[in-house]
Design goal:
CATH class of the largest domain: Alpha Beta
Shape: elongated
Number of helices: 4
Strand content: 5-15%
Number of domains: 2
Number of strands: 13
Order of helices and strands: EEEEHEEEEEEEEHEHH
CATH superfamily of the largest domain: Ribonuclease Inhibitor
Structural class: alpha/beta
Strand order of the largest sheet: 3-1-2-4-5-6-8-10-11
CATH topology of the largest domain: Leucine-rich repeat, LRR (right-handed beta-alpha superhelix)
Helix content: 25-40%
Radius of gyration: 46 Å
Length: 306
């Protein structure tokens, strides 16, 4: 029998649990759905084990004092277009053991005060999109263990500077090169991973069963540029070839320059030799060269005309 247990009009319990004899509760039978008459002053609302498929978004948006909401162990489904009710003071949200499929930037966009989010044991949860928690900067505890996640982007938790604890075990992680960015974030972030030894890879076959921390080291070697001894030898030979090749080119350019300038210089020498031979020929034929003294002007004397 499903029961509604109410105490002090502040805490509402919808569960199959037994009535606590030490506390004065009020019982009420309900038919697998959340009643519309929830007191507006309710601070804690527990809807666990009720086989709920949907939540009354409109009615819950009026619970301005609600800080604790437990919707675990139900049949809740949230598609890509689902947006959680805008409960302004909500700090604790438990959605574990449901049938969630996606978490988008709109799913929790109205829960700005959220501190703890439990999404564990949702076997249909296959994707948490990047920036899904951008509207929840105060998050300190996130549990996404035992879901169907294969990949998480490196930007998902980057801006959650208050994040303290993160659980991710039990997911079939695909530890390929695209997963390396998230692995780097895990390594550098100041976050506690209580189940880090149980965060194992499911794919590829080479990494199956390895913890994410071990896989991260191997991914660095496989996915990033790295140099082996042979690579250094090859680069050294390339440097030597470039050096000697440059030297040879410079020598050839210099040699070509000398060859191109040679004929012009040689013609000048040849012309000088020809002029000298002609002069000697003239002297040898009896021609006399008359050396005429230079003219001098003395005082106001005029030069005599010839």
């Amino acid at each position: 029998t499903l029961q509604l247990v109410m105490s002090h009009q502040e805490t509402l319990l919808f569960s199959f649990g037994m009535l606590d004899a030490k506390t004065d509760y009020f019982r009420l039978l309900i038919n697998y759905k959340v009643p519309g008459s929830i007191p507006l002053t309710t601070r804690e609302l527990i809807l666990s084990y009720n086989k709920l498929v949907t939540l009354p978004v409109l009615e819950m948006s009026y619970l301005n004092e609600l800080v604790y909401l437990d919707c675990s162990h139900n049949l809740l489904e949230m598609g890509l277009d689902f947006t959680f009710p805008g409960i302004v003071k909500l700090t604790y949200l438990d959605l574990s053991f449901n049938k969630l499929s996606f978490v988008t930037p709109y799913t929790f966009s109205q829960l700005n005060k959220l501190l703890l989010l439990n999404l564990s044991s949702n076997p249909k949860l296959v994707e948490v999109k990047d920036k899904a928690f951008d509207s929840n900067p105060l998050l300190r505890f996130v549990d996404m263990s035992d879901c169907a996640l294969t990949y998480v982007g490196g930007e998902l938790f980057k801006d959650l500077h208050n994040l303290h604890s993160l659980r991710l075990k039990g997911n079939p992680w695909n530890c390929d090169c695209s997963f390396l960015e998230f692995c780097n974030w895990i390594k550098k972030a100041d976050v506690v991973y209580p189940d880090s030894e149980e965060m194992t890879c499911n794919k590829p076959e080479l990494f199956k069963g390895l913890t994410v921390n071990v896989a991260e080291t191997k991914l660095h070697y496989l996915c990033l540029v790295h140099l082996d001894f042979q690579d250094f030898v090859f680069l050294g030979l390339m440097a030597i070839c470039i050096f000697f090749g440059g030297t040879l080119v410079a020598w050839l350019v210099g040699l070509a320059t000398v060859q191109l300038q040679g004929p012009s210089g040689g013609s000048l020498i040849a012309r000088s030799e020809v002029t000298g031979n002609q002069t000697e020929g003239l002297l040898g034929s009896g021609a006399h060269l008359v050396e005429r003294p230079p003219f001098r002007c003395e005082g106001n004397k005029q030069l005599s005309s010839f």
